[in-house]
Design a protein that fits this description.
Blueprint: H1 2-8, H2 14-39, H3 43-70, H4 78-100, H5 117-134
Helix pairs in contact: 2-3, 2-4, 3-4
């Protein structure tokens, strides 16, 4: 009976080979990211390595989608193959996105002339002292709190 059952089951193993290849590619990408974060030298070059691994993953994904579209009999449901393939591709895409975050874009030079911060702070402090010293010492600047005024009967008037 096992011989009869095997005749009806699809013998296509190409899908499983591609899934294994994609899983190995994800493992390589994760190891490359780990190596980059462990040593943290030559980051832009290491990010390019991760990006190359991600492009290889995209090629494997394309091969899987092409195989699903060409084969009449698949080892399991087409929608499940698409879902698994998309999720595996998402993993390697996220590894690439995470690695890319560690590369800062080159900054544009500033058009303003740079003023040393200590000179700017000293200048601001000098102007503040001069302004406070020149302020009149009048009673209107006192720090005493004023109490609210009450009407002659001692109650506040209310409008209706």
């Amino acid at each position: 009976m096992p011989g009869l059952l095997q005749r009806f089951l699809p013998r296509e193993v190409g899908f499983f080979d591609l899934f294994a290849k994609q899983a190995a590619n994800i493992h390589d990408g994760a190891n490359a990211l780990l190596k980059m974060l462990s040593h943290y030298t030559g980051v832009p070059e290491q990010v390019q390595i991760v990006k190359a691994i991600e492009h290889e993953g995209d090629e494997i994904t394309l091969a899987l989608f092409t195989k699903v579209n060409q084969d009449f009999i698949t080892p399991f449901d087409r929608e499940d193959i698409y879902e698994l393939c998309s999720r595996l591709d998402d993993v390697i895409d996220l590894i690439d996105a995470g690695a890319s975050r560690f590369v800062l874009p080159p900054s544009a030079p500033s058009k303003r002339p740079k003023k040393p911060s200590s000179t700017a702070s000293r200048s601001t402090a000098t102007k503040t002292i001069a302004t406070v010293s020149a302020a009149p010492s009048s009673p209107s600047f006192s720090t005493k709190k004023k109490t609210p005024s009450k009407s002659s009967s001692g109650k506040r008037s209310s409008k209706s």
